[in-house]
Amino acid sequence: PIPDPYIEEKRQRIVLEGDVPSPTNPPSGCNFRTRCPQVMDICAVEDPEWKNVGTPEKEHWVACHLY
């Protein structure tokens, strides 16, 4: 797709605070749990499964226990 500067300008960005986990010693469970504002207890124990939260026509895949 061709980038649209107007859409990009209005797009809400999510900034993850904190330090990026070590790639040689990643945290248990979800790799984003140490920086996620929506972290839950299950995030420390279990990797989230990939889920399509979009539509069959326009897929949007996430790996998060919220969905």
Report the total helices.
1
Q: Distance N terminus to C terminus?
A: 27 Å
Roughly how much helix do the residues carry, as a percent range?
under 10%
Output the helix-strand order: HEE
Instruction: Please tell me the overall pLDDT.
Output: 90
Structural class, from secondary structure content? little secondary structure
Overall shape = extended
Total beta strand runs? 2
The strand order across the widest sheet is 1-2
Number of domains: 1
**CA-based gyration radius:** 15 Å
Low-confidence stretches: none
Q: Key terms for this structure?
A:
two-stranded antiparallel sheet, extended, little secondary structure, 67 residues
Can you tell me about this structure?
It is a single chain. By secondary structure, the protein is mostly loops. The chain has one domain. It has 1 helix and 2 strands, in the order αββ. A two-stranded antiparallel sheet has the order 1-2. A hairpin with an 8-residue loop joins β1 and β2. The longest helix is centred in the first third of the chain and has 6 residues.
Brief summary of the model shown:
With 67 residues, the protein is low in regular secondary structure.
SSE layout and pairings?
Elements: H1 5-10, E1 50-52, E2 61-63
Antiparallel strand pairs: 1-2
